[in-house]
């Protein structure tokens, strides 16, 4: 009796093991099916998110948001040409017209002009000078320190854009594109109450590699104390203060005229680069001893601050080169031209909108194609994996030996080979179809070319591909 019950229990146990094995095989396939659907859903969510983010929206991850909100380099931003804005109810607003003129005309005339709001804003960028090759613009930036009533100055460089005409290059110059460090700076000390120190560009050299600058030092109560001439060399990124020219003027008037300039108020007036000798700077000297300034002569000095020379003791004209340029207002644009420009601008806006729409649709199409190809490839791989699982389920044999594993691998390899052969056959068929289409297109073009040549010959003209050039006598 006990033996019978033991056999019954053993048979029940074997049946339960068989059912568990069958459930394990089905669970494995179900799990793979579930994972496949999860992966497809992830791909779909990624596609929809990328599609929405073509126009930035709130449907983005924190990482994507941080990338979009990261600070951008303003020096790389493109600056449009500024325009005078007008209200929607206004038909015409005068638009200023501009022209390019010589900066140092007449020689030595450039000065810094501060606006009324400078003392409230405490900083002002003054119009600068453009190099002869329209490569850079140099401008002074003036600062006011109200606590001690002190003014100081820096000289900055803005590289100009390479594309566009000369006028558009100057119009697009913006302080966002300036080099971070000034090429020249005055003393920033605020110990001297009421002192001012400014830097005024005078002119570029003929080749645009050197810049003449005058530094004015003085007080707001008693005027200018001293003017210094400075030359900045862009090739060596260094500056030379032409102090020797002041020493030469003092020495000459003391030695030959028995006049000590240190006992009176006098100053120099930098004019520019000598037209006949581009490596020399010309300055004029003036003494302020009465109602009218006394002329102390025209002098020249090397750009590195050596070899001072007296040119003349009479205020005759000296040939000074004028190399740098600036932009000034020359009037207003006529209304008729503005109307034409507005029509052109509207037409260009429509073209831009159309190009943006086409670009957007193109990107959407690319994302959609990429998504469909990804899903197709995933479905294909999943199908092959399910076929492999079915092969394993059909294999008979014990899992405790290697015969079922070897047979399973053999059947899987055979299935893979059949798939590869089938895919290769389909690809060859597709390639042959494409080759046939290309050949048909080629024959069609040849026929069209023959018809054009025949029409040209019948009209007595040369074919489009013939050489009609004749050697010159």
Describe this structure in words.
A hairpin with a 5-residue loop joins strand 7 and strand 8. Helix 1 runs antiparallel to helix 6. Among the domains are: 67 residues; 236 residues, no CATH class. The chain is an alpha+beta fold and 473 residues long. Helices cover 42% and strands 22% of the residues. Strands 2, 3, 4, 5 and 6 form a five-stranded antiparallel beta sheet that branches. Strands 7-8-9-10 form a four-stranded antiparallel beta sheet, with no helix packed on it. Strands 11-12-13-14 form a four-stranded antiparallel beta sheet, with helices on one face. The chain contains seven helices and 15 strands. It is elongated.
Low-pLDDT runs of 5+ residues are 16-23, 463-473
Outline? elongated
Helix-strand category = alpha+beta
- The DSSP helix count reads 7
Arithmetic mean of pLDDT: 83
Would you count the extended β strands for me? 15
Indicate the proportion of strand residues.
15-25%
What is the string of SSEs from the N terminus onward?
A: HHEHEEEEHEEEEEHEEEEEHH
Rg of Cα set? 42 Å
The percentage helix is 40-55%
Q: Cα distance, first to last residue?
A: 129 Å
């Amino acid at each position: 009796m006990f033996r019978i019950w033991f056999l019954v229990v053993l048979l029940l146990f074997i049946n339960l093991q068989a059912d568990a094995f069958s459930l394990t095989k089905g669970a494995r396939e179900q799990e793979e099916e579930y994972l496949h659907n999860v992966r497809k859903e992830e791909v779909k969510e990624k596609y929809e998110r990328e599609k929405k983010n073509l126009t930035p929206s709130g449907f983005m991850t924190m990482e994507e948001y941080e990338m979009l909100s990261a600070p951008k380099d303003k020096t790389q931003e493109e600056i449009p040409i500024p325009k005078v804005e007008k209200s929607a109810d206004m038909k015409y607003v005068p638009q200023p017209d501009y022209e390019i003129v010589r900066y140092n005309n007449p020689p030595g005339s450039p000065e810094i002009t501060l606006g009324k709001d400078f003392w409230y804003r405490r900083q002002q960028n003054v119009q600068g000078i453009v190099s002869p090759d329209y490569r850079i613009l140099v401008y002074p930036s003036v600062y006011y320190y109200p606590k001690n009533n002190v003014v100081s100055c820096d000289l900055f460089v803005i590289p100009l854009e390479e594309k566009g005409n000369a006028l558009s290059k100057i119009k697009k110059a913006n302080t966002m594109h300036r080099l971070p460090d000034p090429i020249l700076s005055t003393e920033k000390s605020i110990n001297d109450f009421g002192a001012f120190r400014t830097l005024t560009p005078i002119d570029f050299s003929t080749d645009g590699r050197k810049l003449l600058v005058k530094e004015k030092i003085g007080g707001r109560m008693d005027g200018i104390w001293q003017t210094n001439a400075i030359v900045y060399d862009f090739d060596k990124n260094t500056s030379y203060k032409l102090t020797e020219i002041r020493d030469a003027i003092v020495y000459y008037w003391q030695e030959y005229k028995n006049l000590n300039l240190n006992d009176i108020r006098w100053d120099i007036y930098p004019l520019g680069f000598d037209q006949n000798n581009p490596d020399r700077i010309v300055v004029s000297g003036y003494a302020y001893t009465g109602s009218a300034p006394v002329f102390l002569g025209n002098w020249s000095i090397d750009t590195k601050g050596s070899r001072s020379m007296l040119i003349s003791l009479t205020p005759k004209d000296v040939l000074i080169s004028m190399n740098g340029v600036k932009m000034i207002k020359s009037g207003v644009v006529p209304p008729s031209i503005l109307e034409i420009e507005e029509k052109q601008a509207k037409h260009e806006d429509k073209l831009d909108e159309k190009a943006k729409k086409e670009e957007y649709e193109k990107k959407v199409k690319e994302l959609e194609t990429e998504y469909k190809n990804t899903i197709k490839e995933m479905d294909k791989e999943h199908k092959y994996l399910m076929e492999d699982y079915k092969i394993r389920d059909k294999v008979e044999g014990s899992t405790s030996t290697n015969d079922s594993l070897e047979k399973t691998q053999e059947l899987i390899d055979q299935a893979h080979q059949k798939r590869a052969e089938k895919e290769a056959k389909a690809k060859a068929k597709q390639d042959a179809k494409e080759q046939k289409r290309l050949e048909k297109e080629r024959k069609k073009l040849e026929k069209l070319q023959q018809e054009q040549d025949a029409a040209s010959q019948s009209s007595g003209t040369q074919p489009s591909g013939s050489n009609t050039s004749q050697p010159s006598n």
